[in-house]
């Protein structure tokens, strides 16, 4: 039987598109930036970490632009995005990936840490979308991918700040998907389960300490919690983000996609 891969043609081709990925110095963001660049997009990786000379950078493509940007700082985001327009003439893709986590029992919540999670994970997404949507609406083409989480759909103890922020992002995805549809600006979200990133390493190390586990036992603690019994690789998240920006996904907007090894079904 002959294989007809050519029927997919340039379905995944992002050449000519300009993408901004937030929180792209490491983890999911770096993998997303790498995947979009591999699909042909011009990619601007925006991360708070680029303000530090010693930042670990997992971008594997020298052609990816790097810019220091704090998603919670409206003036900073506005300037960075207008710089992208000045340099490239358009901004077609925004991946709202920057995120942080803080877990505590409700009675022990440190409100400064709670607010910090809401500020980055929720307000940061609103600020970046606000400025990107203005450009995308005017050009009548845009793709916005929000990185939410399976935690938006779970009820895991101590995850209140993180889950609240992600639940809000998942619902904003529905609202903005509807609101921006007349302008051909599609808004979707990826909701991953556990992914092996520096954030995940932090979670594994915390469980190691709390439960006196070996690294393997702590890894399994998370892996065994999902039906497919594994922790995702960042490349998988990058690939899904690229698909959502491609022509393959042009019939979907306002949707949350569970990339969760069966942990949640939406
Ligand atoms: N790792 C997981 O298991 C997992 C699962 C589901 C969803 N997610 C989501 O994926 C996204 C990336 O997570 P990760 O695991 O790669 O995390 P990570 O901590 O490894 O990387 C996060 C990146 O975001 C950047 N960042 C943080 N605050 C910022 C700010 N204010 N402005 C700009 N950049 C900022 C950091 O510098 C860092 O480079 C997050 O939104 C996270 O909630 C992660």
Helical amount: 40-55%
Strand content: 5-15%
Bound molecules: nicotinamide-adenine-dinucleotide
**SSE run:** EHEEHEHEHEHHHE
Q: Tell me the distance between the termini.
A: 36 Å
In total, the number of strands is 7
- The CATH superfamily of the largest domain is identified as NAD(P)-binding Rossmann-like Domain
Mean pLDDT: 96
| Unreliable spans | none
Shape: globular
Radius of gyration: 18 Å
CATH architecture of the largest domain: 3-Layer(aba) Sandwich
Report on the structure:
This protein has 266 residues and is of the alpha/beta class. The protein folds into two domains: 14-193 and 233-258, NAD(P)-binding Rossmann-like Domain (Rossmann fold, 3-Layer(aba) Sandwich), CATH 3.40.50; 194-231, no CATH class. It is built from seven helices and seven strands; from the N terminus they run βαββαβαβαβαααβ. The chain has a seven-stranded parallel β-sheet, sandwiched between helices. α1 (27-38) packs across α7 and α3 packs parallel to α4. The structure holds nicotinamide-adenine-dinucleotide. Residues 22-23, 25-29, 47-49, 69-72, 97-100, 120, 124, 147, 149, 192, 194-195, 197-200 line the site of nicotinamide-adenine-dinucleotide. The site of nicotinamide-adenine-dinucleotide (NAD) has 29 residues, from α1, α3 and α5.
């Amino acid at each position: 039987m002959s294989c007809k891969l050519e029927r997919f043609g340039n379905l995944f081709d992002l050449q000519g598109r300009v993408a901004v990925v937030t929180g792209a110095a490491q983890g999911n963001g770096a993998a997303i930036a790498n995947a979009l660049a591999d699909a042909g997009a011009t990619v601007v990786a925006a991360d708070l970490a680029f303000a530090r000379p010693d930042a670990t950078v997992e971008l594997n493509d020298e052609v990816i632009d790097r810019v220091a940007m704090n998603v919670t700082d409206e003036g900073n985001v506005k300037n960075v995005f207008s710089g992208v327009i000045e340099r490239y003439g358009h901004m077609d893709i925004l991946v709202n990936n920057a995120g942080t986590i803080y877990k505590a029992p409700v009675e022990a919540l440190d409100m400064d840490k709670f607010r910090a999670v809401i500020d980055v994970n929720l307000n940061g997404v609103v600020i970046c979308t606000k400025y990107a949507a203005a450009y995308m609406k005017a050009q009548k083409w845009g793709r916005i991918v929000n990185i939410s989480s399976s935690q938006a759909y779970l009820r895991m103890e101590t995850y209140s700040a993180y889950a609240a922020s992600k639940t809000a992002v998942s619902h904003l995805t529905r609202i903005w998907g509807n609101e921006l549809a007349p302008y051909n600006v599609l808004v979707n979200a990826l909701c991953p389960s556990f992914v092996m990133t520096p954030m995940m390493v932090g979670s594994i190390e915390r469980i190691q300490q709390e439960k006196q586990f070996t690294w393997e036992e702590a890894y399994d603690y998370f892996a065994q919690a999902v039906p497919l019994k594994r922790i995702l690789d960042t490349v998988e998240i990058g690939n899904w983000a690229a698909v959502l920006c491609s022509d393959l996904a042009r019939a979907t907007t306002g949707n949350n996609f569970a990339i969760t090894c069966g942990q949640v079904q939406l």
